[in-house]
Amino acid sequence: MPTILVIDDNPTVATALELLFSLHDITTEYAATPDAGLARLRAGGVDLVVQDMNFHTDTTSGEEGIALFHEIRRFDPDLPVILLTAWTHLESAVDLIRAGAADYLGKPWDDGKLLATVNTLLELSSTRRELDARMRGDRRRRDALVDGRDLRGLVWDDPASETTLSLALQVAASSLPVLITGPNGSGKEKYAEILHANSAVRDGPFVAVNCGALPNELVEAELFGAEAGAYTGATRAREGRFEAADGGTLFLDEIGTLPPSGQVKLLRVLETGRFARLGAHRERSVSVRVLSATNADLTAMIADGRFREDLYYRLNGIELRLAPLGARPRDILPLARHFLSGRTPLSEAAERALLRHAWPGNVRELRNVIQRAELLARGAAIEAGDLALPAAPAAVVDQDTHEPDRVEIEAALSRAGGVLAQAASDLGLSRQALYRRLDRLGIRRD
Ligand SMILES: Nc1ncnc2c1ncn2[C@@H]1O[C@H](COP(=O)(O)OP(=O)(O)OP(=O)(O)O)[C@@H](O)[C@H]1O
Ligand SMILES: [Mg+2]
Q1: What is the DSSP letter of 270?
Q2: Ligand 1, residues 145, 189, 251: which to mutate, most atoms within 8 A of Cβ?
Q3: Which CATH architecture has domain 159-323?
Q4: Residue owning the nearest CA to atom 5 of ligand 1
Q5: Mean pLDDT across 329-335
């Protein structure tokens, strides 16, 4: 049940209000002086204040009411305060509304209007409290996730990314082989680094092999090594990447391009931990955590015989699926700012354009777009035109050009302790964009 504190020197006012509120399941408490009122507030649990402007029958200046209001604001910048004032002192009430009071009512008041105002304000502040609690929860979860981990500079804000990261950190410590899937430029290699950096073998080597960058006949030599003379041009014995990764992590990128003979050999190492260099009889054994990545549809490749199903199950101890950037829109602006490293601001129009674009090339495309735009902007703010993104964004769902409302903005401001730049970044807005909204909504900047 919400609690309203009435601060008024006239007990009949309090009695009348108490009766009115009790009919609507609202508890009323009463203080006859500003000091008693403030003491009651400090004790906590008050959801709304109704205050008088004069506290002595012989004063009408409203100064005591003004002073009380400012004390209340100092104690709690968000608490809704309704001023009860004689109609002759409207002016100071209007000043206080500008200073953040929620509303005023002339004595005698209209019960219906007072109740409507009270209900709206109570609802608003409970929404705000819920939002605050949720934000605090988000932050706590995030801190717990990051705690002591090396995230290799990963930038994220979207809940979808948090889910992915949390799964990654959970499996990092195990020795399970992880198959990282996701479209081009979505961060597969970045995640491979994170898995290694948080694994039991983080002090061992991290060796990455791009299976797609090597001609078929060299992939096996690259992976398993070769003795001198094992193939044309092999003049000296060479160590393979499996040996190089012993005691650490081997990251097999673009695993879908591995030719069939390589697939067989790889399967064998994964099953036995043993392999031989090309042209050698002696088998070697290694202890290697294997991570692999692909943007290909391996199940489709299995179906038409291009990828071994048994190998797929060996590699896929667990699958880490990276969402395309367009499916985690809250990552877009933080990533853009990260690639700018804070030197060049983004105009509001540029931010909107970034949020509207579909990002078929994902994070890599975003990085390239930002780097090019920064060059074009030459130190000035980046404008939408500098991004050179296609104009017609027809198919993109605009779920995150979401316009923050007053409650969200105020919540962000209070979380940021009034630091506008911080609140703006929290809201995914530029500072200028936040200023404009504060003006429009009449929210004070201090
Ligand atoms: N969440 C992120 N935070 C910071 N940087 C990121 C993030 N995701 C990707 N990057 C950066 O974006 C670029 C592309 O990422 P990465 O190379 O990991 O993608 P990929 O999925 O391996 O791409 P491809 O399919 O082309 O191999 C890299 O420079 C990487 O550091
Ligand atoms: Mg890659």
Answers
A1: H
A2: 189
A3: 3-Layer(aba) Sandwich (3.40)
A4: 154
A5: 96
299 vs 180: CA distance, rounded Å: 14
Mean pLDDT over 363-387 rounds to 93
Q: Is residue 164 within 8 Å of 172, Cβ to Cβ?
A: no
Of 228, 213, 302, 217, nearest in space to 261 by CA: 217
Contacting residues for 356 by C-beta, under 8 A, at least 6 apart = 389, 393, 396, 398, 401
Where does 328-441 sit in CATH, by number? 1.10.8.60
- C-beta separation of 390 from 358 below 8 A: no
Q: Which pLDDT tens digit goes with each residue over 67-85?
A: 999 999 999 988 999 998 8
CA–CA dist 123, 129 (Å, integer): 10
Architecture of domain 3-128: 3-Layer(aba) Sandwich (3.40)
Please say whether the beta carbons of 426 and 412 come within 8 A.
yes
- Which ligand has an atom closest to residue 185 CA? 1
Are the C-beta atoms of 379 and 203 separated by less than 8 Å? Answer: no
Rounded to the nearest angstrom, the distance between the alpha carbon of 206 and the centre of ligand 2 is 15
Tell me the two tokens of residue 237. 């014995």
Residue 164 Cα to ligand 1 midpoint, Å, equals: 14
3-class SS of residue 361: coil
Tell me if domain 159-323 and domain 328-441 are identical in fold. Answer: no
Ligand 2 mean position to 16 CA, how many Å? 71
pLDDT surpasses 80 at 437: yes
| Domain layout of the chain by residue ranges | 3-128, 159-323, 328-441
More confident residue, 327 or 428: 327
